[in-house]
Amino acid sequence: MRVRGMALQLTITGVLVVAATAAPEFPIAKPGCRDRCGNVSIPYPFGTEPGCYHGSRAPEMLFQFTLVAALLAATVSAQEFPIAKAGCEVRCGNVTIPYPFGLTDDCYYDAAFLITCNDNFSPPKPFLTTGNIDVTEITLEGKLHVEQYIAKDCYDASGRTSRNNPELTLANFIISDADNIFVSIGCDTVATLSGNLKEAGNAENEYEVGCTSLCNSLKYVPNDTCSGIGCCRTSLAKGVNYFDIAVRSQKNHSGILDFSPCSYAFIIEEKKFNFSTSSLRDLKNVAKLPMVVDWSIGNNSCDKVKNSSVYNACQGNSTCYDPDNGNGYLCRCLDGYRGNPYLPNGCLDIDECTDTTVNHNCTHRCTNMVGSYTCSCPKGYHGDGRKNGNGCIRLRSLVFHVPLKDCMVNQDNMRQVKEVANIAKKCIRIRGEERPSMKEVAMELEGLRTSAKHPWTNDESNVEETKYLLGKSMETVRFEEMAGTRIGAGLATLLMGGAWLY
């Protein structure tokens, strides 16, 4: 028989078994076989391993499943986020050109973001505006990766053979102080970097930093370390938009021409700089090195753009923020979105549940939502389903035995059976604060016993045991004590199951 979600069973030994049952789960796969692969359900006759798919068509079924899974994975990975404005080229050679940069009219934000693609190179090379700054990468985080010339002063036995002192002027952008360093290399080298601070006034915008490295023997030059002997490095100031590098020798490299024939100085991206003793000679054949430029939109701060009628380049599902270096502002997609925040509808929702680049926080089931996702537990489990939360805990099957002596369940005692079933239902509620304590359960059972007319409820031998339970809190009643009583033998599993869920 069944009493409102409670399974009742009367055994031949005269014991009524009352069990809390969860909602039934319908079978999908064969017993012992996986019924899911990632977020994809695998119903029989398909299967993921031998013995789990239909036998007569095993190779075909396995192939079909593999093909479907591959297509689903390809669909997920094929999701493309917008890069450039509609109808605009997105590449020049091997370099992606995201908006606000662009290659042709109406494809860039303003003239400062023009990229000129030179087809005379193979592959073609992009350059900033119409100048000679070679662009190698553009990021939407405000970084422009370029290549910049090295300053050199080289000698042989007859004297100076070549000299080069490069300079760079950026009309709208600035040199990244966070990503670059100033370096001089050589054993007879004096280098200076002079420039302007864009943030300073006209009378105080001069900026200069120097680096000197001297040595008379290669054995004193440490390999793989720029420590001041043969190599010197220093940081840059913020806000530099112009620089001029000069390098010279004090003794025309006299006595060291065999291992250090040149002096070098340059600004370089710190992550790509690695000094070695071979650099003293090898840099003679290198023309350019990587450097990072910081870019931003306009000269107004984020707050000014938000609180005025100034055009805001940040589009839907995005927000603006101030850069660490220089004026203007940058845009980024809101959490849960990805794409190009400078394009209309450029920030698209991420499916955190299927995107392999997102490490979602779910232990079992993940459900994508616009701009976010939720975690849940499968049937038979409870909890928040989160890795940093409660996770998913399997619901325990709660069973207790009520001795009926030699009586059968009939219409007269069915009320007591239903009351016991209701107590069991209260004890398996998921929320701990909604479940009764052991004392409350014992009190309800005592009420049933004293009000019932049937012999098994009027058994006075249980009174002392009930008083014993009523005198103790849930924390002090031990499972062994409960199991040793006649009431406990019938309810211990239920009560302790409730305690496990706290």
TrEMBL record:
This is EGF-like domain-containing protein. SUPFAM superfamilies: EGF/Laminin (SSF57196), Growth factor receptor domain (SSF57184). One of its GO terms (cellular component) is membrane. Residues 298-340, 349-384 form the EGF-like domain. Its main location: membrane. Transmembrane segments: none annotated. Disulfide bonds join 314-331. Residues 1-22 form the signal peptide. GO terms for molecular function: calcium ion binding; polysaccharide binding. Keywords: Disulfide bond, EGF-like domain, Repeat, Signal. InterPro entries: EGF, EGF-like_Ca-bd_dom, EGF-type_Asp/Asn_hydroxyl_site, EGF_Ca-bd_CS, Growth_fac_rcpt_cys_sf, NOTCH1_EGF-like, WAK_GUB. It is a single-pass membrane protein. Pfam families: EGF_CA, GUB_WAK_bind. It comes from Salix dunnii. It is found in: Membrane. SMART domains: EGF, EGF_CA.
